[in-house]
């Protein structure tokens, strides 16, 4: 049998960092496992793991302290996918790996690889005691910029970000990830909450990407672009607070066929419900490490009838004080007239 190898890598543009990868990853497609070796510019202090299995011992590696690191992935574990091919005949074994230069977090300079080893059936008969060893071809690497994601709340008509709105105004929540190769990625928006500027937080989208209360934010619509999601909603605010801040997590996965969309219950007939406050010790994202935290611009939300009430109060106060001033003027003038008459009477009596 012959092993073929195809790699699709995703790389962020270089930014100042004390370490980085040298050259291309070296891959060995073994009979029972796949080994990937990376060379680094400086002593490696991060980790390498299979995407979606970072917390499993057999699926991650912290081979640190040298200018090289590696990971050996069992073919029957860690979510490795094996597919039989009829033309050409053989087996296609695929997995997804991340090399992270931080020991805990995913950063923009990390690299993701989708690795496919093709074990091709040779067109000859092999009999004992002849043995056939696995051979690896030179890996082919495709580089792509890591998507840069943002969250913004805009006017649904002008599509411009809003900063001051009134309760009940229609808004458009929009999540966008920009990438030079959008067809290589899938995105899922999840774990959203709203905060009042003083620490009070309410969850409005759960860790599966489903809405909790449609009166605040309904289930999202993915599109119109490949890495886009959006949903219209009405402006709301906390009692006795003006500032409203929205924050979400965006999960990025390497595309493998069609991008999955969260399957959420229909909230059309849901009644208004009381939502519990989010605890600060409660995680805001799933246990997957491929999450990006995005925060929309801060928004001031005013009560829609506040200006009208203020206007009426101002007019009433002006009218009251105007009448009061006229009354005071009349009293003052009558007092002055009485004093003048009194002085005139006294003068005549003295004469």
From TrEMBL:
Q: Where in the cell is it found?
A: Cell membrane
InterPro entries (UniProt xref): CUT_C, CUT_N, Cuticlin, ZP_dom
The protein's GO terms of the molecular function aspect are: structural constituent of cuticle
Q: Which residues form a coiled coil?
A: none
Give the keywords, sorted: Cell membrane, Cuticle, Membrane, Signal, Transmembrane, Transmembrane helix
Q: What is its main location?
A: membrane
User: Would you tell me the protein name for this molecule?
Assistant: ZP domain-containing protein
List, for all copies, the residue spans of the domain called ZP: 28-271
- Name a single GO cellular component: plasma membrane
Provide the transmembrane region boundaries: 320-346
Q: Which Pfam families match?
A: CUT_C (PF25301), CUT_N (PF25057)
Q: Does the keyword Lipid metabolism apply?
A: no
- Does the keyword field hold Glycoprotein? no
Q: How does it sit in the membrane?
A: Single-pass type I membrane protein
């Amino acid at each position: 049998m012959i092993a073929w190898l195809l790699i699709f890598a995703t790389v962020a543009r270089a930014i100042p960092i004390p370490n980085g990868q040298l050259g291309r990853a070296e891959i060995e497609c073994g009979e029972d496992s796949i080994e990937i070796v990376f060379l680094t510019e400086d002593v490696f202090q991060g980790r390498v793991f299979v995407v979606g299995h970072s917390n499993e011992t057999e699926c991650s590696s912290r081979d640190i302290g040298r200018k090289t690191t590696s990971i050996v992935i069992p073919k029957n574990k860690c979510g490795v996918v094996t597919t039989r091919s009829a033309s050409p005949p053989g087996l296609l074994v695929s997995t997804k790996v991340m090399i992270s230069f931080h020991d805990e977090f995913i950063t923009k300079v990390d690299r993701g690889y989708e690795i496919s080893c093709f074990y091709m059936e040779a067109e000859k008969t092999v009999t004992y005691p002849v043995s056939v060893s696995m051979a690896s071809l030179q890996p082919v690497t495709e580089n792509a910029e890591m998507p840069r994601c943002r969250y913004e709340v805009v006017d649904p008509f002008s599509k411009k970000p809003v900063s001051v709105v009134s309760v009940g105004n229609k808004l458009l929540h929009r999540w966008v990830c920009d990438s030079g190769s959008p067809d290589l990625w899938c995105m899922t928006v999840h774990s959203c909450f709203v905060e009042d500027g003083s620490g009070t937080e309410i969850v409005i989208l759960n860790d599966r990407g489903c809405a909790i209360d449609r009166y605040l934010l309904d289930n999202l619509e993915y599109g119109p672009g490949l890495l886009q999601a959006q949903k219209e909603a009405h402006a709301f605010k906390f009692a006795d607070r003006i500032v409203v801040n929205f924050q979400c997590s965006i999960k990025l996965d390497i595309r493998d066929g069609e991008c999955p969309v969260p399957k959420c219950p229909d909230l059309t007939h849901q009644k208004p419900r009381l939502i519990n406050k989010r605890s600060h010790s409660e995680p805001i994202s799933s246990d997957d490490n491929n999450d990006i935290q995005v925060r929309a611009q801060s928004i001031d939300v005013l009560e829609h009838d506040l200006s009208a009430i203020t206007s009426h109060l101002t007019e009433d106060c002006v009218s009251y004080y105007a009448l009061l001033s006229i009354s005071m003027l009349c009293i003052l003038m009558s007092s002055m007239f009485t004093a003048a008459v009194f002085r005139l009477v006294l003068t005549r009596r003295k004469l």
